[in-house]
Design goal:
By secondary structure, the protein is of the alpha+beta class. Helices cover 16% and strands 32% of the residues. It has one helix spanning 29-44, and strands at residues 14-18, 51-53, 65-72, 75-83, 89-95. It is elongated and about 35 Å long. The model has no long low-confidence stretch (mean pLDDT 82).
Length: 99
């Protein structure tokens, strides 16, 4: 049986992503979306890569928490992202599916 996003429960997938590099005051959202999608595909051994969508502009601020959405084959799950410092490092975890 093929794994899918439909089987993800709260907090089952966790990841850490480093989004620092340039001296921008906002997170590199394109890099964040790509990293989360790649880590989810690897952790679940998915046949495809989920499409991850995050807010367009997120200021770099330690403790800031925001939600992204991952979608694959009609299954959707929310991904809670927490900034761990003021340098663009984040952790993420899946939360209850939205659909």
């Amino acid at each position: 049986m093929r794994a899918s996003l439909a089987y993800i429960g709260a907090g089952l997938l966790l990841g850490t992503t480093v989004l620092s590099g340039c001296s921008s005051s906002t997170l590199d959202i394109d890099k964040l979306e790509t990293n989360i999608a790649t880590e989810m595909q690897s952790q679940l051994s998915l046949s495809g890569t989920p499409t991850v969508t995050c807010p367009d502009s997120v200021p770099i601020e330690q403790g800031n928490v925001f939600t992204c959405t991952a979608e694959l084959d009609g299954d959707t799950v929310d991904v809670e992202v927490t900034q761990t410092d003021d340098k663009g490092n984040v952790t993420w975890e899946t939360v209850q599916p939205t659909g």
